[in-house]
């Protein structure tokens, strides 16, 4: 049986590039939203003329669509993910460009009829509106407020919830940029961590759950969490997911 130190070392050693979560098989589980974001992309992307995927990560989700539109572009901010995304999206002939999460999008105005984004770090609603054609659609699965807060609070103590990710704030920001919100859904999804290595890798990969996380800084709390899971089984938290669809009005 692996010791606490062995598990810490294992969780620290797993590469964090891309958004491939297959390493977690058997070690952590997350319930999936009922709307099936990848299925929605598979239905809509091939029917569009020009598609932009913002903050694509390693392109893993976009790569699952069955066929590409005439124009397919993705952006990513983290350099190690750029080459991964280019490899994953080569089959679709996609162009992958570097763009900061909060930066202006490096594309002409009214260029895309479909803009998508899965789990964006931040959303520049003004830029989404600008690059969409009149009548074009923005479709996004976003991380809602207080997602996995049980894990955040266990390690850091009770923390305030960031209201910028709430449904009402999201809708308000989209509408303020001139978009019409036509669909908004929210689901709380059960997430289980089965060992401390899974927790460590998750916190290294999803860096906003415990900002500035390192094993050394949180060793005592990780030890307490390891002991909890040894005695009581998986640690349960809840992911908050939003699906938002918005359209740029026709001129």
TrEMBL record:
Gene Ontology molecular functions: methyltransferase activity
Keyword annotations from UniProtKB, A to Z: Methyltransferase, Transferase
All residue ranges annotated as the Methyltransferase type domain in the record: 52-138
Highest taxon listed in the record's lineage: Bacteria
A biological process term (GO) from this entry: methylation
InterPro entries: 23S_rRNA_MeTrnsfrase_RlmA (IPR052939), Methyltransf_11 (IPR013216), SAM-dependent_MTases_sf (IPR029063)
Pfam families: Methyltransf_11
E.C. code: 2.1.1.-
EC main group: transferase
Annotated protein name in UniProt: Class I SAM-dependent methyltransferase
Organism of derivation: Streptomyces kurssanovii
